[in-house]
Design goal:
This protein is α/β, with parallel strands linked by helices. Helices cover 50% and strands 17% of the residues. The chain contains nine helices and eight strands. A hairpin with a 2-residue loop joins strand 3 and strand 4. The N and C termini lie close together (8 Å).
Amino acid sequence: MGYISVAIDGPSGAGKSTVARAAAMRLGYVYVDTGAMYRAIGLAVCRRGIDGEDAAGIAAVLPELTIQLAYENGTQHVLLCGEDVSDAIRTPEIAYYASKVSAVPAVRQFLLETQRSMAKSGNILMDGRDIGTVILPDAPVKIFLTASAETRAERRYLELREKGQQVTRERVLHDVVERDRQDMTRAVAPLRQAADAVLLDTSDMTLEQSIQAVLQIIEKKIEDLNHES
């Protein structure tokens, strides 16, 4: 059997990145955070003062950008034109821009081949919103990881407060619901569960339970594939 690609999709704040990163580390797979790539483009757009609704303006800036994922001591770093923007992309403002730029076809095409090429070079675990449906439709393992909007908002609220950001629960819940609406109704690659993806709702799970559940799904799928071959 060749390289294994694991596609994890799900809504904003479901804990995909945290769970996927931990699962990849335990499996010895390369973790690819596609959301960070969109956030990096969102940051570039924001810095240039381009409106999030200006698809032509967003597309025009793409040739100027290089986005790389680098790993240092097991930690992923996001490089935008060589600058480490790992922290700068993790703000509510940039999350908003990430959602806007991800709806622009030129942006998705810009990142598509980069993301697909990563799956050809080794075992990977990639998370996002359209990995199993668009980026890696042939991935042998697909998981749709979700949680209730209230649970996701509470997790995000605590995360932002821990980082010193002044936010309210109400505002965070509003942002989560609005992000869901944008992601599910956009014309290009909307958020949806792939037909062959395993649904995993982590609303009532701890982080460790969520990681273990993902690992069990992956291990069972690989076991089934080995039996088939």
